[in-house]
Structure formats: structure tokens, C-alpha cells
Amino acid sequence: MKSTAKKLIVAAAFVPTVAFAWPWSTDMMNQPSIKPQEGTPAAFPKRSIPVMGNPTQVSNREEAKGLKNPIEPTQASLDKGKDLFKIICGACHGNTGKADSPVTDKIGAISLVDDYVQGLDEGWIWGTITFGSFVMPAYGVPGPQGGSNDLSPEERWHVVNYVKHQLVKDAAGDSVASTAGDSVASNE
Ligand code: HEC
């Protein structure tokens, strides 16, 4: 009998609602510390917040026209650009940019090795990747066709470097190979 009473008291001490009701209970919230939203927040250290994917100074493709490419077309940049090209652009424009992917015709993706695109301003191409085009979705900001910020500003310049400095060469190499294959096939 005695031990049952003891057990009850112990049990009561552990029931939170009851424990809060004791006059000596204090709320941990009420203590001399800085509360959320209280006072002026300290400035975040520089570069501590990722801002990748935000367009830099421009807000549409027209404004991107004439932007100077800040990244030299070094081999390292071309290699990065090529990897990204195959991951993202190849799906519609073909892995060699020659408008030969299985969906090219379905969506009207154009050849990127033709004179038209090769003659485009680098800033315009960067802007096309950033904001999308008419059918092409954006890869720098969510755009009218949905779009994403899959490519950081630097990554977009690497792709521009690849498109302007190596894509045509790679595509030519590819066509030599496929021409050779074709002629073997036609000899049969
Ligand atoms: C989902 C399909 C799709 C993907 C992925 C895609 N494009 Fe396009 N792209 C298109 C289509 C369709 C057009 C032609 C119609 C238009 O302008 O929207 C086009 C047009 C272009 C043009 C010509 C713009 C102009 O001024 O006429 C460039 C340059 C281009 N794409 C580059 C790229 C690059 C570089 C990538 C990779 C980052 C890429 N595209 C990824 C579909 C795509």
C-alpha cells in the first residue's frame, strides 16, 4: 500500500502538465538571451550565402547581348563546357550540336554548328542559355517555359566557350566517322 502511494507520487512528478503547474516551474523561454527577430541581425559574412543561378547584371536575353565573356576558352573550360553540353544541350540539339537527337525534329531544335549560331554574339548565347528562347527552356532562371537554374553563370560561360570554340571541330570529327560508316554500309 505504502509503495503504491510512492509510485503515484513519482509518476505525478513526471507528468509534464502537472509539473508545469508547480509555482516554482519556470519557462526556459524567459531568459536573458536574444530572441528570434529581436534587434538588427548581424550581416552575413561575404559569400556565405550561395547565389549561384541568379543572373548577374541582366534580366533578359536582349540585355545579355554584348556581355563580355569573363572566362577564357582554356582547355579546362572547354572540357567543362563539353561535359555540360552533353548533359543538358545534347538532349535536344544532339550530342554534337548538329540537330540530330531523337527529339530534335519534334521540338524544332536547331543545329548549333551552322553559321547562324556560330555567328551569334557570345553574350546572346549566354543569354539564351540563361533565359531560354522561344521554345527552348531557361537554364539560368526559371523562365516562361518552366526552366531551371541548373547551370551557374560560370557554367553557362563554359558552355558558350565550348559552343564557339570546339563544337564545330567535334561535330566535324563525328561526321568524318559517320561518313566512313555510311560508305562502308553503302558498299555492301
Ligand atoms: C528542351 C530542348 C532544348 C534544350 C535542352 C536546349 N535547347 Fe537550345 N534550342 C531549342 C529549340 C527548340 C531552339 C529553337 C527555337 C527557339 O529559339 O526556342 C533552340 C535554340 C537555341 C539557340 C539559338 C537561339 C537563337 O538566337 O535563335 C541556341 C544558341 C541554343 N539553343 C543553345 C543551346 C544550348 C547551349 C543548350 C544547352 C545549355 C541548349 N540550347 C539546350 C531547344 C533546346
Nutshell version of this structure?
This protein has helices at 2-14, 16-20, 61-64, 75-93, 104-107, 115-118, 122-131, 153-165, 167-187. By secondary structure, it is mainly alpha-helical. Bound molecules: heme C.
How would you describe this structure in keywords?
mainly alpha; 188 residues; binds heme C; disordered C terminus; 0% strand; Cytochrome Bc1 Complex, Chain D, domain 2; 9 helices
What value does the Rg take, in angstroms? Answer: 30 Å
Number of helices: 9
Q: Uncertain segments of ≥5 residues (pLDDT<50)?
A: 177-188
Q: Which small compounds were modeled alongside the protein?
A: heme C
Within the CATH hierarchy, at the fold level, what is the topology of the domain at 61-187?
Answer: Cytochrome Bc1 Complex, Chain D, domain 2
Helix content, binned percent: 40-55%
Written description of the protein model:
The protein has 188 residues and is mostly helical. The chain has a domain of 127 residues: Cytochrome c-like domain (Cytochrome Bc1 Complex, Chain D, domain 2, Orthogonal Bundle), CATH 1.10.760. 49% of the residues lie in helices and 0% in strands. It has 9 helices and no strands. Helix 4 crosses helix 8 and helix 7 crosses helix 8. The longest helix has 21 residues. The chain is elongated and about 95 Å long. The termini are far apart. The C terminus is likely disordered. Heme C binds next to helix 4, helix 7 and helix 8.
